[in-house]
Specification:
The chain has 432 residues and is of the alpha+beta class. The protein has three domains: 30-116, Immunoglobulin-like, CATH 2.60.40; 121-130 and 231-429, Trypsin-like serine proteases (Thrombin, subunit H); 144-221, Pdz3 Domain. It is built from six helices and 31 strands. The chain has a six-stranded antiparallel beta barrel with strand order 10-19-20-24-23-21. A six-stranded antiparallel beta barrel has the order 26-27-28-31-30-29.
Length: 432
Amino acid sequence: MKTYRKLKAFTAISLSIFFILFACMVTFRIIGNVPSEYNISLGEEYSLETKIPLSFSTNSESIKNILEINKLNSTTDEIFNKTSGFKLKPLEKGSANINLRLLGLIPYKTVKVNVVPKLEVIPGGESVGVKLNTNGVLIVGTSEITNDSGNSYDLAKSSEIEIGDTLIAINNNKINNASHVSKIVNENKGRELKLTLEREGKQFTVTTTAIKSGQDKQYRLGLWVRDKTAGVGTLSFLHPESKNFGALGHAITDVDTGSILSVKNGQIIKSRVVSIEQGKRGEPGEIRGVFYETSNPLGEIEKNTEIGVYGKLVSDSFDVNHKKALPIAYQHEIKQGPAYILTTLDDNKIEKFSIEITKINFQSNPEPKSMIIKITDRKLLEKTGGIVQGMSGSPIIQNGKVVGAVTHVLINDPTKGYGIFIEWMIEESGIK
C-alpha cells in the first residue's frame, strides 16, 4: 500500500513538473515571437498574432491619439493551436507602451510601439568603388630598429603600442598620412616625442624617442603604418530628399589587422566589374572591378561603421528623379520566404536575383547579422556560386519593400549568408 502511494505521489509530481516545463516552453516560444519594440509607418496597419491568447492594457490616455488597438478574431482548430492577437492601426506620430498578459493572467512583456512617418528610399544595386582615407594612420605592424652601435630597440613594445592602434598626432601635430609621420620624426632629430593614439575608440598618449637606424641613417619608430584603402562593394540605398546613401552593410576593415578604419574622408566612385571568382565551400569568391571617372566621385563618405559606410551623394550621375523609390520594411514586417536582391555582375547592369529568407533574428540593437538568406536563383549560382565579396550591400526586397542588405557569406556554404535590417542602416545614415 505504501509503495502504491509513493508511486502515485511520484507520478503526480512528475506530471506537475512536465506541465510546468511545457508551459515554460510555450511561453518562451511566444516571447521569442513577439519583439519588444515595433516601428509602424503612418498609413499602414499591422497584425500582432500569437499562438496563445493574450490580453493587453495601457497606462496612458495618450495612446488613444497615437494608436488604435483592436482584437483579432480567435479561432481554435486543435487544442494548443489557438490563433489570437491584435490589429495595430497608427493614428499619429508618437510612441506608446502596450502591456501584454499571457492567458489574460500572467504579465510577461511590455511592447513599445513607435508610430513613424512613412519612409521611402531608392534601392541601389550598383557596383561602386570605395576609397577611404583614415583619420591619422593605422599601425599594421611593428619592428625592431638597430642603431650604428648594433643595439636593437623595440619602441612599440616598450611604449605598449599595439598593432591595430591608430596614430592620431605627434607632438600635438595631427597626422595627415604615412609620409607625414616620417617627416615629423626625422625633423625632430632624436628628441622626445609625444604620440597620441587611439584604441577601441579611446585616445591615450605615450612618450618615446626615435632611434637613428644604422642601415639608412633615418630616425625611426619601428611602426608600419597605413593611411588609405580601396575596394569594390555595392550601393544599398539612396534617400532622394536628403541625398544620403548607405552601402556595404558592414564596416571597411584593415586587411591585416581587422580593425575598423577611422574615416578622415572618403569617396564612392563608379566601378566596372571585370571578372568574378566563384565562391566554393571554404573559399569565398570575389567580384573584381576597376574604378573609372575617379575625378567625378558619386558621393562623399562620412562614416565607416560596423553596419556599413554612409555619406552624401554629390554627383548627378544618379538621376534620382527617374528611379523608383520603395518603402522600407521594419523587422517585424519581414517574413521567412521568397525575396530578391539587386546586384551588378560582369554585364555591368543591375539585375534581380531570387533568394529565400530562411531565418530572422529579431534585434533590439543594430547588428549586421539580422537574417540568414539563401541564394535560389540558378543564374546567380552558375555565375558566382552564391554570395561573393563585392556583393555586400546588395539591397534585399520583399513584398515591394526594401527589407535589408546583404552583409556576409557563410564560408562553408557560399549559397547562404547574412543580411542586415534596412532600419538599422537608415538609422545610422541619419535619415529622419
